[in-house]
Specification:
By secondary structure, the protein is of the alpha/beta class. It contains 24 helices and 23 strands.
Length: 703
């Protein structure tokens, strides 16, 4: 992690006067609960699209408990009836501000499939009931909160607001939409991991500072009429390099690393830290990116290059006669700060109001431990790095062990199995740049692509030691690793693969090569399939050595930008040759601000410098072609055979239609299959659970 300038420690603020009320068993969701706590009002009300689970894996609980630790009285309004304003007034008027979040997931991703169909359930709602949150929940909740509370400050946060902080492509309406700040009419937006920002904002409001004056907090965005005079504007509204680019400098040179004040950005190659701290990069306006796809791709490129807290500059983007101002990203939490955040007095249970109902999202994570934040992989289709950042934040072993003991002692029905020990990427715990000075100057979008950076520490030894310590906790029978695994990192540490295979795989291990072909892999910023082959060889070798029958389950993406029908055909042939028969597959879903979403919308590659005549890349938009790409991943499904036969003939590959082992699709069609109509949902025959394949055979892939 880069060395930070001196910033206030997260828990160093003088507690607000209401700390005298002590710790609530759970944060209240009703006036009756408030009265039982002795409260006449809340200082902060958090409105969320999820059911309230008092667990650190749920954003509203983590932020709520953090504000409580600062001395504030925090109430929760979970999944309110957005059709009327009364439900937003159930806790009364808050004294400081209303916080708005859609929940742990983007509301549109939560409600719709990649084919824009409504989902039939919602894991974050009691009994999985659908329809308990509106489309674009942040907008709707903010507007209702404004109706309910008038001039009370409204602060947006969470992943939905974070990924919509600037003008963005919206897949569900197939349009470029304005920053959520504009449409929500909110006072402030907190993006990324919001602990530092929300604590500072709350204390400044408590001291009587008006929300309109809070303009210097890292990790926040706001609307303004003009840029502060103290900043030097760097114009990147045209198709050129994003601001002036000096000659490359030695990132290790001591003159490039003066001690920076708390409110200054850290230096980058060739620029003094104080200069960059006063710079603001002007992005193409909303109107420009709405009307010009190439400028949209250019704006996405510039934004992603300003995401390292060590050297990022402020950004502005015009929206009509106003500007959306983005301060640089927040400084990551230190290990002691992260430990305290995860060890706040959570009940670790759903709110008692949900007694008698099932909450699948909680059931999924109640036996898991989050040990790490952030991801330096930089996959273009993923929003993690845009939201959490590329700098890894790791908890201490002692804190992790304490949480494991908490799970053992306080989780109803705990069976002794820790279901996951991970985070966005399981094996990035304690990994990072070997030299903090280089990390401060770095502008790479990925530490792993096109190859693993020479400065990256890939030592998995501490993680192996952590796994062993957790296994030795009394009462813990098994520790599984279910989070995503970067196998290209793991192959650098065969000892780690051996430890994983020997103790932490529950029969199947999911990994994500995503594709086999160089074209789409390059646009995903993923390693070549050879890295997967090396990992697979290690996995199978160590499984044999310990006498375990275990299988890899690979994930692949259909219809990713840059993918052709031929690419999917080659992937299908690879799957068949390697004996993988995937049961469930995923089609690319463009989420706001992901670089791959910019590719989907514009047909351009923002990983390279953009010019008006920049070459286009293939983009899969039509439903029929998206269905075809998914069908290639499930080449073995008889319902897909008619579509695949038709495609193979049109591609000049009818030689792959036949009943031999070398063929991809047979000539015959089983009765009752393949009789689908274009655009209509298929009703597949009931599936039978297949027995485990015999030793030495390749498995049927499961998602």
């Amino acid at each position: 992690m880069p060395q930070m300038p001196t910033v206030p420690e997260l828990f160093s603020y003088r507690p607000y006067w209401a700390h005298r009320f002590g710790v609530a068993p759970v944060l209240p969701m009703s006036r009756a609960e408030m009265e039982a706590l002795g409260w006449d009002s809340c200082d902060v009300i958090l409105v969320t699209g999820d059911a309230y689970v008092d667990h650190p894996s749920f954003g509203m609980a983590l932020i709520g408990r953090l504000l409580e630790a600062q001395g504030f009285r925090v109430g929760i309004i979970a999944q309110p009836d957005w059709t009327r304003v009364d439900d937003f007034r159930r806790l009364g008027r808050p004294g400081l501000f209303v916080g708005i979040t859609a929940g742990n997931m983007d509301s549109m991703v939560n409600r719709y499939t990649a084919d824009r169909r409504l989902r039939s359930d919602d894991a974050y709602t009691p009994d999985s009931a659908p329809g308990r949150r509106p489309d674009r929940s942040v907008l709707v909740y903010a507007q209702r909160a404004r109706e309910a509370f008038g001039e009370v400050p409204i602060v947006l946060g969470g992943i939905e607001a974070s990924l919509r902080r600037v003008a963005h492509y919206d897949y569900w309406s197939d349009t470029v939409r304005r920053s959520v700040l504009v449409d929500a009419k909110a006072d402030l937006l907190i993006y990324g991991n919001g602990e530092r920002a929300i604590v500072e904002v709350a204390h400044r409001l408590a001291r009587g500072e008006p929300i309109a004056a809070i303009r210097d907090v890292r990790g926040t965005a706001f609307l303004t009429r003009e840029a502060p005079a103290a900043h030097e504007a760097v114009d990147s509204t045209h198709l050129d390099a994003p601001g002036p680019v000096p000659a490359p400098a030695d990132p290790y040179h001591p003159e490039l690393h003066p001690q920076a004040p708390a409110d200054a950005a850290m230096p980058v190659a060739g620029r003094r830290g104080a200069d960059r701290g006063r710079q603001v990069v002007r992005l193409p306006s909303f109107e420009q990116v709405r009307d010009d796809p190439v400028l949209y791709a250019h704006a996405a490129r510039v934004l992603h290059q300003e995401t390292n807290p060590g050297n990022a500059r402020a950004l502005i983007q015009g929206h009509g006669d106003r500007l959306v101002w983005l301060n640089p990203p927040p400084w990551p939490l230190t290990t002691p700060e992260l430990d305290r955040v995860y060890e706040l007095p959570y009940s670790r249970l759903p709110h008692p109001a949900y007694d008698g109902t099932r909450l699948p999202a909680w059931e999924m994570i109640r036996g898991s431990v989050n040990i790490v934040r952030g991801c330096f992989g930089g996959c273009t289709f993923c929003s993690i790095t845009v939201h959490e950042g590329r700098l890894i934040q790791s908890r201490s072993p002692a804190s992790i062990l304490r949480e494991v003991a908490e799970i053992r002692d306080r989780t109803p029905g705990f069976t002794g199995v820790i279901s996951d020990l991970g985070g966005p990427t399981a094996n990035m715990w304690r990994l990072g740049c070997r030299d903090p000075r280089a990390a401060q100057a770095c502008r790479r979008l990925s530490c792993l692509f096109p190859a693993i950076c020479a400065n990256l520490d890939t030592d998995h030894g501490p993680l192996i030691a952590l796994y062993r310590e957790v296994r030795e906790v009394p009462g813990i029978k098994r520790v599984l690793i279910a989070s995503g695994l970067r196998y290209d990192l793991a192959v650098r540490a065969p000892r780690y693969v051996r430890e994983l295979v020997t103790h932490h795989v529950g029969g199947y291990l999911k990994v994500a090569p995503e594709h086999t072909e160089a074209g789409p892999l390059g646009l995903m910023m993923k390693p070549g399939i050879a890295a997967f082959d090396r990992f697979k060889a290690l996995f199978e070798r160590f499984s044999r050595e310990v006498g375990k029958e275990q299988y890899l389950i690979p994930y692949f993406i259909a219809a990713h930008p840059g993918t052709t029908d031929e690419d999917m055909l080659h992937l299908a042939l690879w799957l068949k040759a390697n004996g993988f028969r995937l049961e469930q597959v995923q089609a690319f879903l463009p989420t706001p601000m992901a670089l791959a979403s910019a590719m989907y919308h514009t047909g351009r590659n923002p990983l390279r410098r953009l010019t008006p005549d920049a070459p286009t890349i293939p983009v899969v938009r039509k439903l029929r072609q998206r269905r075809l790409h998914k069908a290639f991943l499930r080449y073995h499904d008889p319902n897909n055979w008619p579509l695949l036969r038709e495609a193979l003939k049109s591609m000049g590959r009818a030689d792959l239609i036949g009943n031999g082992k070398r063929h991809l699709v047979p000539t015959f069609q089983p009765r009752g299959t393949g009789d689908t109509l274009e655009g209509r949902r298929r009703v597949a025959p009931a599936r039978r659970r297949a027995p485990l394949p015999p030793r030495g055979k390749r498995p049927t892939g499961r998602r």
